């Protein structure tokens, strides 16, 4: 014999589940509101630390393009270079890179300040100094390629992190985008 479900037997669990979801959603929204400012502050601090890492001669920065390009100045107000923030798609998610370029158009430093979605022990190794230091001294006026992608000739190349070619390409692409922004800005300023 089949038991018939009453409206009460269906309605009470449905309302209970709805109320639980409503309370959990409200708590998540509250948590987000409480932590949003701190998260934004931490991201800003991370970006600032990254700017000083790629332009160690700078005593301070002036923003030239919102959240993207900064002009580094020494303690006397002389321009020492530019810190440029770019991001590209890596293997697991966004890779954010800060590139420091001096006034002569040479890369001073590269800092991968966000690659949390990349594979630990592989793609995350693009933030290691062994990989990042390959960019130092390269010209911002020429493209940079991962050596696996090089067709020979006079291209500026860097070696990919072992088993992390996609992540290495992402960082290289972000550095090239920063170099393009530098070249565009300096060409505009020269006019």
Shape descriptor reads elongated
- Biggest sheet: strands side by side, in what order? 1-2-3-4-5
Q: What's the helical proportion of residues? A: 40-55%
Mean of all residue-level pLDDT scores: 88
* Structural class computed from helices and strand pairing: alpha+beta
**First and last CA, distance:** 90 Å
Count of separate structural domains: 1
Count of helix runs:
3
Radius of gyration: 24 Å
Features:
191 residues, alpha+beta, single chain, 24% strand, 5-stranded antiparallel β-sheet
Can you describe this structure in just a few lines?
The chain is an alpha+beta fold.
Give the SSE map:
Blueprint: H1 7-54, E1 60-65, E2 69-73, E3 79-89, E4 94-102, E5 107-114, H2 129-132, E6 144-146, E7 156-158, H3 165-190
Parallel strand pairs: 6-7
Antiparallel strand pairs: 1-2, 2-3, 3-4, 4-5
Describe this structure in words.
This protein has helices at residues 7-54, 129-132, 165-190, and strands spanning 60-65, 69-73, 79-89, 94-102, 107-114, 144-146, 156-158. A five-stranded antiparallel β-sheet has the order 1-2-3-4-5. The chain has a two-stranded parallel ribbon with strand order 6-7. With 191 residues, the chain is an alpha+beta fold. It contains three helices and seven strands.
